[in-house]
Amino acid sequence: MEAFIQPGFWVFVLTMAGIYGIFALGLQIQYGVAGVMNFGHVGMMAISGYTIAVLVIKYEWSFWWAALAGVSAAALGGALLGLATLRLSGDYFAIASIAFAEITRYLILNADGVTGGTQGTLAIPNPKGFGGYTDQVDVILYWIMDRLYPIFGDETSRDMAMLSVVWPFLFLFIWISSRLQKTSWATVLRATREDDDVPASLGKNVFRFRLQALVIGSAFGGIAGVFWAVQFMLLAPEDFLRIVTFYGWMILILAGATKVKGLAIAAIFFGFLYGATRFLDFWPISELSSPERAYLRIFLIGLVLVLLMVKRPQGLFGKREEMVLE
Amino acid sequence: MEQSTVKQSAAPILDVRDISVSFGGVKPVRGVSFSIEKNTFTSIIGPNGAGKTSLFNLISGANKIDSGEIYFKGDPIHSIHAYQVAQRGLVRTFQGAKVIRRLTVVENLMMAVQGNPGDNLWGFLNPSARKRFEISTREEAMLRLEQVGLSKFANDFAGILSGGQRKLLDLSRALMTSPSMVLLDEPFAGVNPTLVEKLLEVIADLRKNNEITFLLIEHDLETVMNISERVIVMAEGKIIADGLPNSIYDNELVIDAYLGSRRKGA
Question: Shortest CA distance to B157 belongs to which of A34, A190, A312?
Fold first, then answer.
C-alpha cells in the first residue's frame, strides 16, 4: 500500500499514460477516422524502438537520426502491412494485423545477432561493450531534472523529466491530429468507414486514403516507440506482446473512438485504472495470493470497460447519436 | 434485337461494346452493346432481374466485365477502377440511395467535389488554399440542398433522412462532382410525387443549362416516356428493344417481357 501514496509511482504511471496516449492516437486515426481495425499496432512500436536501439548501439548512429529512422521504419511497416493486406475487408485485416505484430516480435526474438534476441537490447553486439542507446537524450533529461530539482527536491526523477517531455508532445500531437481530422481528407476517410462504393463512385481512391491513414497511425505508433525506448532504456521482445495493442484500444474505447480530444483524459483514466488496481490488497482481496490478485486486476479493468460500454458505448467523449444512426 | 430509328453520332459519349459478366452460374449481362450520344436522356427499362443494375455496376467500374469493351469520351474505361471512372466525369447514383449516415448532409455533398486540395495530405500544409476551396464548396453544396429542399438538414447526420430525401441527396451528390454523364439507378422509386416533381425539375434545369448526359433505370413508365428521348429495354441480360419511347410502347417483345398482357389488350 505504501507505493500507493508515493508520488514517484504516479509520476511513472502518468508518464506511461502519456506514451500510451500517443500510441492510442495512432489507433484513433486508423479506427476512429478510417475504420481500419489494426490489432497489430504494437508491432510499429517494436519496429521503431528496436530500430533506434540497433542503429545507436550497433552502428553508432546519433540517437536523433536513429529516432527519425525508427519512426520512418514504423511508417514503412504500416505501408507494408497495408499494401499486403488492406484490401482484405475489416475483420480479416484485423486478423492479418495481429499476425504482422507477432511476426515482428518473433523476428526480433530470433535475430539475436542483431537485436539481442531474448536478452533484449543489452545483448546487442556493439563495439563499446555496453548496450545503452539513451546517452544523448539523457543529457537533456538530466538538464530538465536540474531545473525541476529546486521545485520537487528529492522527489525529482528521470521519470518526472520524461513526464514533462511526453505530455507536451502528446498535446502537440493531439492538436495536429485534430487539425488533420478537420480536412476533407478525413471526411472521405469517415465515409469509407461505412461504405467503399460511395466514395469510389465520387472519384475517391479508397485504398489510397486508407493506406495513408494506416501509415500515419503507424508513424504515431513509432513515435510512441521512441518514447518507450527512452523511458525504459532497454528493450526486450516481451515488451511488445499483443496485450499492449489492446491497452491502446482500451484508451481509444474509453475516449470514444471518434473524439481525438478525449484521448489525453482517457489515457490518464486508463493509467490510474491500471496503476491503482495494483494496490488492491485490502480484505477480502487480500485473501488471494499475489499472482491471483494480478489476474483479478486485469479482470477488474475488463469489468470497468464492460460497464462503460453498457452505460456509455460511445466512450467518455463520443456522441451517442452518431452510434445509433441506421 | 429490334432497332428503331435513333440516330447515332460519330462520337458517342458512352460506347458499350458486347459486354458480358457472370457471377458463379448467373449471367446478369450477356453481350450488351449500345452507345449514348452526348447531352441526351436515355432510359433503361426491363423486368426485375433483367440486368439493369448489373449493367450500371459494369459501366461505373464497380464490377469488372468478363468480355467486351466500354468507352467513355473515346477512352477505354473497362479496365480501370471505379474511382478513375468517376474522375473522368461518369458518375452514378445507387438503387438504394446510399448516403453516408454518419456524415452530415452537407458533408455528404462536399466530399463529392473533385480536385479538393484538402483531399490530399499535402493540402494539409496549405491551409489557406484548403479554406478557400472549402468555402466555395460549401456554398455550392448549400445551393444544391436549397434546390432539392434539404437545406434545413444541412448540418444533421444524413442518417436521419427519409428514403426519399436520401435519393435527393444521392442525386445532388453525384451532381457535385461536375459530371459529364450521370447514371441514375431508380431515383424515383419510393419517392413521393412532390419530391419526384422536384427531382424532375432539377434534371430539366440541368438539361437546359448544362451539358450532362443522363442514363436512367426506372420502372415508372409514365415518367420514362415523358422524360426520355430514347428507351432501351432489357430482359434476361440482353437488350430486346432500343428506340424512341413511342416505338417501345408498341413493341411486341417488350409487351411480352415487361409491359404484360394488360398492354396487349389495350
Answer: A190
